[in-house]
Amino acid sequence: MNLILCLTEQCNLRCSYCYYKDTQAARHAVMDDATLEQAIRTGLERTLAFGQKHLVVSFFGGEPLLRKDAIYNAVGFAKALVADAMEQGRAGNDFRLDFVINTNGTLFDEKFLDFCEREKFTLFLSLDGPEHHQDIARRTANDTGSFKDIKRNIPRLVQLGATALSTITRSHIDTLAESITWLHAQGFKSIATAVDFDGKWTGDDFERLAEQYRKMAHYWLECRKAGDKFFLGTIQDKVKLLLSGKRLRQYSCHVYDGNIGVATNGNIFPCSRFITSKENAPYLQGNVFTGFDEEACNKLRAFFESDKQECEGCEIRHRCSMHECACTSFYTTGHLESASPEVCTHERMLVEISDRLISQFNTLPESREARRD
């Protein structure tokens, strides 16, 4: 179970593509200590109720490092809570507890980095690329570039195994492949990209993006041939899904039994993109103080048990984020049942580029591993 805690809606950046700029526009709400502790209790109890043996506590925002105090306290509280559950026999000795932070990377200090290393945190760093690429959209509240505040932390974050998350806007297209190569050169072994689907992408935009994807695919394959097994999710996920014969939902989207997103006010949602402290929010699943609305939770099962009518007959639907990912569906259409034409165009393009690599990738020993995974 992945428990996603929105510690604060506040953020020191004003990224142009932030998907919370509407749902968290006021940027003032903060999760208090009582809500934080109850959310962790709720997450553990839900994990045990589903018979699972692994709880991941993910610190989210806003910018979660604005609440370092809360993170310190939450880690201690969660560890004690799990220890008690083990002692009571409600959790086995093989129960795992892990911690994750999604951060813009500007607020680290040595003490907190040491804490992350000691607690074996998984770190996801929002970093688009070098300064000229990063500062296009990741701006501070004072409208200055954010790269200078991240640069000093990059070596240590690489050492801690951070994953670099790069967002693609229409303004980032032409330097995308160069920026991915730069991120890898800094030492990042895991890189993922996400497109800002804003309803304004044109055919020309997608053609330019396709050229960048082809460059990225070639670079990834050449690295693999040289024995460098760095992870480039943009290309690798599509290749792996084809080789393994699995569908994306089988290992990626778990909005019913694998994710609990908690807003600052304790409201529960299916995943990160749904989280908001606004009243009458869509896909609300309950509150940590009153429990889960099981009827609302069960409605999510329909998302897993049926294909979207708009996608009927599409050969790539089980490898398509529009069809398979609840978050992508929600933030691009407002609900889970429809499909965004932008995302559909993107996914068809990306699958075609990735599939052209298969014949070359099949000559590598790791292709057999992909089929088994």
Word description of this protein:
The protein has an eleven-stranded mixed β-sheet. The longest helix has 23 residues. The chain is built from 16 helices and eleven strands. The protein is α/β, with parallel strands linked by helices and 373 residues long. The mean pLDDT is 91.
What structural category arises from helix and sheet content?
A: alpha/beta
Major beta-sheet overview: 11 strands, mixed
Tell me the helix content: 40-55%
Report, as a whole number of angstroms, the end-to-end distance: 20 Å
State the low-pLDDT regions, or none. Answer: none
| Broad shape | globular
How many DSSP helices?
16
**Average of pLDDT:** 91
User: Could you state the order of secondary-structure elements as H and E?
Assistant: EHEHEHEHHHEHEHEHEEEEHHHHHHH
Radius of gyration: 20 Å
Query: In percent terms, what proportion of residues is strand?
Result: 5-15%
Strand order of the largest sheet: 7-6-5-4-3-2-1-8-9-10-11
Total strand segments: 11
What tags apply to this protein structure?
single chain; 373 residues; alpha/beta; 11-stranded mixed beta sheet; 16 helices; 11 strands; globular
In short:
By secondary structure, the protein is an alpha/beta fold.
Write the layout of secondary structure elements.
Layout: E1 2-6, H1 33-49, E2 54-60, H2 68-87, E3 96-103, H3 110-118, E4 122-126, H4 131-134, H5 147-151, H6 154-159, E5 163-168, H7 176-185, E6 190-195, H8 203-225, E7 231-232, H9 233-244, E8 259-262, E9 267-269, E10 286-287, E11 291-292, H10 294-298, H11 301-305, H12 321-324, H13 326-333, H14 341-355, H15 358-361, H16 366-372
Helix pairs in contact: 1-2, 7-8, 8-14, 9-14, 9-16
